[in-house]
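pasting Superoxide dismutase for the record, 226 residues
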Amino acid sequence: MALLCRLASRGRSRTQLIAALGCLTSRQKHTLPDLPYDYGALQPHISAEIMQLHHSKHHATYVNNLNVAEEKYKEALAKGDVTAQVSLQPALKFNGGGHINHTIFWTNLSPNGGGEPQGELMEAIKRDFGSFGNFKEKLTAVSVGVQGSGWGWLGFNQDQGRLQVTACSNQDPLQGTTGLVPLLGIDVWEHAYYLQYKNVRPDYLKAIWNVISWENVSARYTACKK
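structre below
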């Protein structure tokens, strides 16, 4: 996981990614992280069935496919097969992004979540969005507006020292594609909500605010400013 984060933040070009992946030869396989709560802990806002399928099936698939892609990349690297190395980039980005995004997502949620953030994060939200209500409305709108599958994000722009809201398509990792440090991610792939909310994404987005762990988001904000 740490390797993926470093790769995502260092470079956006294929050349940089290929160079960085040279360290794959001695790493351990990625594993599915445990959830910090039971599958049913986020009910009624997110059902136990959705959480179980989302974590044990969908996230697990990203982890497994990432390991396969990295093994193939290691073999291509050893053979000096640049064509194969380049052809593996989409699988690395998609499955690596899926692993990164979901690992953040689980910690962004909590059965004790909801409400509003406190302290420095709240001050920053008011500074950059005017109010918490404005921020919530903007992130919801960005997430609703994702065409097809993707994520809505609250990120931190380290160059400007400001919070930003944006969206990423598919499993594109926020930091690797925009440079923003991820603080809060909202999964708007249908597998995150369809069994409970059908195709009414706005209802899912209204509900998810009740389980956002502002403690986790605040900790991420504090850490990225150091």
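The chain has a mean pLDDT of 91.
The chain has one domain: 43-225.
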